[in-house]
């Protein structure tokens, strides 16, 4: 074997990471591998991965804030997504689904022999299919993700002010900046349901970010504009969606 | 192996000091009185007057009988069931006849109660027999459930999730810190000894607290600084008896729903005290509505409610309160002292 397999460990529990390191050290006797990174949260994982790319991620499923399934979904946007081997102590639901979709998983406590098997299988790079991951995820994700120059940016859905459809992309606006994501507005609207409200054919606004409405002046006179929290832009409300002015306008 | 026959039902008088039993008697006697009033009165309006008149006789008698039963409860429970039942019936009939005699010579002088005193005596006897039969049947109906309570304790049990994660954490310690690994395995053994043991009898709260500490130590191993625990138990009577595994499953919920879904550290607060001869246990943990699935939670709570009811009937309560960012379980149960329960 030429290049050693680059492995990253993601688990919210420190002892679980320590255990994996030990077991990987045992495996290293038989196969070329190196642990290139470790993270305790999905957000850290994205940063660590940007700094030191990995071939395989050993990814815990149950983690706070963002679970392993959602992280795997975001990581698929990388130009060269790493292979993913899920780890879990007990999750009857997930295990059944893994079997159905032939997704790699390891049950904790993890044996060196099983780990070695999984890594050898993962070596030609296996990533779970997007369809399988979608089916495995429970409820709406907590983050949106944008891929920029080979790394993933995670955008907490709570921070999103509005989503605007451009030609091929959707612009995600937060108080801090803008991101472009490859997605469809209709799908996002369906996924997040009540959290966003459609103000225009090409625009969804976070309900929580609506500060008020005002009448437009000048050429678009008579139209309503949405005023937003944390962002100075004013977005036009289309004639068809005028009813939301009444629904949201009065506290 | 303990066989299930060990739990075969033996008839026993109800515990007359139990609030639930008293309430049931009160309800049954009063429904009976209302029924009698409706049957005797020609119209529905007249039934009300009838009921008031009937109550003037029935209620004082009934209350005196209840007081007598409460006072003699301990003595009656010690008698064999048949003798105890006869004693209760005799007490009821005696008090009825005696009080009616007194009433007829005092405030009921102008009214006629109608019929011979034997009629009232017979009515009292029938009511008593009916109530005793009812309580006996209820006892029979509930008794398999007591045998089941042990099984349920197993059901409520420790989450498999916790077991495997703990074993994993211990494994990680074996190479680096063998001593800590030993301690953790000992805690795990103690925990499972209780979970798999016989949990039908009440046990001292101090033992439960010990168990909870062992459980939390194990969780601490995995979660480290993320788990903070505050004990407020200096006002707890260590001799109080509670159903075993009453608090541990609640702490498990608190960790699973309150601490694990958070990145930041969270605090679990355990407050145990007595107030007016009742034992209060309040557990509080951080909680956010988002991203939580409750099924396991409801199961543990349902299980604990059921066991509380089996042990204390209406005298124990379990309330939950979901606050803005916290979740609280409040249990109130009678303060049973260690020595008393054996008597």
Walkthrough of the structure:
In chain A, 30% of the residues lie in helices and 32% in strands. In chain A, a hairpin with a 2-residue loop joins strand 14 and strand 15. In chain A, helix 1 crosses helix 5 and helix 3 runs antiparallel to helix 6. Chain A starts with a strand and ends with a helix. The longest helix of chain A has 14 residues. Chain A is α/β, with parallel strands linked by helices. Chain B is α+β, with helices and mostly antiparallel strands and 343 residues long. Chain B has two domains: 135 residues, no CATH class; 186 residues, Histidine kinase-like ATPase, C-terminal domain (Heat Shock Protein 90). Chain B contains ten helices and eight strands. In chain B, the strands form two sheets. Chain B has a five-stranded mixed sheet, with helices on one face. A three-stranded antiparallel sheet of chain B has the order 1-3-8. In chain B, strand 4 and strand 5 form a beta hairpin. The relative contact order of chain B is 0.09. At the A-B interface, helix 1 of A face helix 5 and helix 7 of B.
Summarize the structure.
With 251 residues, chain A is an alpha/beta fold. Chain A has helices spanning 14-27, 42-51, 68-75, 92-101, 112-122, 130-136, 185-192, 243-249; strands at residues 5-10, 33-39, 56-60, 83-88, 105-107, 143-148, 151-156, 160-165, 170-174, 178-181, 196-200, 203-206, 210-215, 224-228, 231-237. Chain B is of the alpha+beta class.
Topology diagram in text:
The complex is a heterodimer of chains A (251) and B (343).
Chain A: E1 5-10, H1 14-27, E2 33-39, H2 42-51, E3 56-60, H3 68-75, E4 83-88, H4 92-101, E5 105-107, H5 112-122, H6 130-136, E6 143-148, E7 151-156, E8 160-165, E9 170-174, E10 178-181, H7 185-192, E11 196-200, E12 203-206, E13 210-215, E14 224-228, E15 231-237, H8 243-249
Parallel strand pairs in A: 1-2, 1-3, 3-4, 4-5
Antiparallel strand pairs in A: 6-7, 8-9, 8-12, 9-10, 11-12, 13-14, 14-15
Helix pairs in contact in A: 1-5, 3-6
Chain B: H1 19-40, H2 44-78, H3 81-105, H4 117-156, H5 160-176, H6 178-196, E1 203-204, H7 205-223, E2 227-232, E3 240-242, H8 248-259, E4 266-275, E5 278-286, H9 295-312, E6 317-322, E7 326-334, E8 336-337, H10 338-342
Parallel strand pairs in B: 2-4
Antiparallel strand pairs in B: 1-3, 3-8, 4-5, 5-7, 6-7
Helix pairs in contact in B: 1-2, 2-3, 3-4, 4-9, 5-6, 5-7, 6-7, 7-8, 8-9
């Amino acid at each position: 074997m030429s290049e050693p397999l680059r492995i990253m460990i993601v688990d919210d529990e420190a002892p679980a990471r320590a255990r994996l390191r030990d077991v990987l050290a045992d495996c290293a006797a038989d196969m070329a591998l190196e642990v290139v990174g470790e993270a305790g949260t999905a957000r850290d994982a994205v940063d660590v991965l940007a700094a030191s790319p990995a071939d395989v991620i050993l990814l815990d499923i149950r983690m706070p804030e963002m679970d392993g399934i959602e992280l795997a979904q975001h990581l698929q946007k990388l130009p060269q997504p790493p292979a993913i081997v899920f780890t879990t102590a007990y999750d009857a639901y997930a295990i059944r689904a893994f079997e159905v979709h032939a997704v790699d998983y390891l049950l904790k406590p993890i044996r060196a022999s099983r780990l070695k098997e999984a890594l050898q299988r993962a070596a030609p790079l296996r990533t779970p299919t997007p369809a399988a991951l979608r089916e495995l995820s429970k409820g709406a994700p907590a983050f949106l993700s944008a891929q920029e120059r080979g790394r993933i940016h995670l955008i907490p859905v709570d921070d999103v002010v509005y989503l605007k459809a451009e030609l091929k992309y959707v612009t995600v606006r937060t108080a801090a900046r803008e991101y472009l994501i490859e997605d469809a507005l209709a799908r996002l609207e369906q996924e997040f349901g009540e959290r966003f409200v459609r103000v225009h054919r090409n625009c969804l606004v976070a309900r929580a970010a609506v500060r008020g409405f005002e009448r437009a002046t000048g050429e678009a006179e008579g139209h309503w504009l949405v005023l937003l929290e944390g962002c100075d832009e004013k977005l036009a409300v289309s004639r068809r969606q005028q009813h939301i002015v009444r629904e949201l306008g009065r506290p | 192996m303990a066989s299930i026959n060990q739990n075969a039902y033996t008839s026993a008088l109800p515990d007359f000091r139990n609030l639930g039993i008293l309430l049931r008697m009160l309800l049954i006697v009063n429904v009976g009185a209302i029924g009698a009033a409706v049957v005797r009165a020609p119209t529905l309006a007249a039934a009300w007057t009838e009921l008031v008149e009937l109550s003037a006789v029935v209620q004082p008698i009934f209350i005196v009988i209840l007081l007598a039963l409460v006072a003699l409860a301990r003595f009656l429970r010690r008698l064999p069931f048949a003798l105890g039942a006869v004693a209760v019936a005799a007490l009821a009939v005696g008090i009825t006849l005696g009080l009616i005699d007194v009433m007829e010579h005092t405030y009921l002088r102008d009214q006629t109660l109608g019929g011979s005193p034997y009629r009232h005596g017979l009515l009292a006897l029938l009511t008593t027999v009916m109530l005793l039969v009812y309580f006996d049947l209820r006892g029979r109906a509930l008794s398999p459930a007591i045998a089941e309570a042990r099984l349920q304790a197993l059901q409520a049990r420790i989450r498999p999730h916790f077991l495997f994660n703990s074993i994993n954490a211990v494994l990680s310690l074996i190479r680096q810190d063998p001593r800590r690994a030993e301690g953790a395995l000992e805690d795990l053994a103690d925990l499972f000894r209780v979970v798999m043991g016989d949990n039908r009898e009440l046990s001292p709260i101090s033992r439960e607290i010990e168990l909870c500490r062992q459980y939390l130590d194990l969780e601490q191993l995995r979660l480290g600084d993320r788990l903070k625990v505050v004990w407020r138990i200096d006002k707890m009577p260590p001799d109080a008896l509670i159903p075993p595994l009453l608090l541990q499953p609640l702490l498990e919920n608190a960790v699973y729903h309150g601490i694990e879904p958070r990145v930041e550290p969270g605090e679990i607060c355990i407050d145990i005290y007595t107030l007016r001869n009742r034992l209060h246990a309040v557990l509080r943990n951080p909680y956010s509505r988002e991203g939580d699935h409750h099924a396991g939670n409801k199961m543990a709570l349902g299980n604990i409610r059921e066991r509380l009811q089996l042990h204390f009937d209406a005298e124990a309560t379990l309330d939950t309160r979901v606050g803005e960012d916290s979740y609280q379980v409040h249990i109130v149960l009678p303060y049973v002292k260690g020595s008393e329960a054996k008597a």
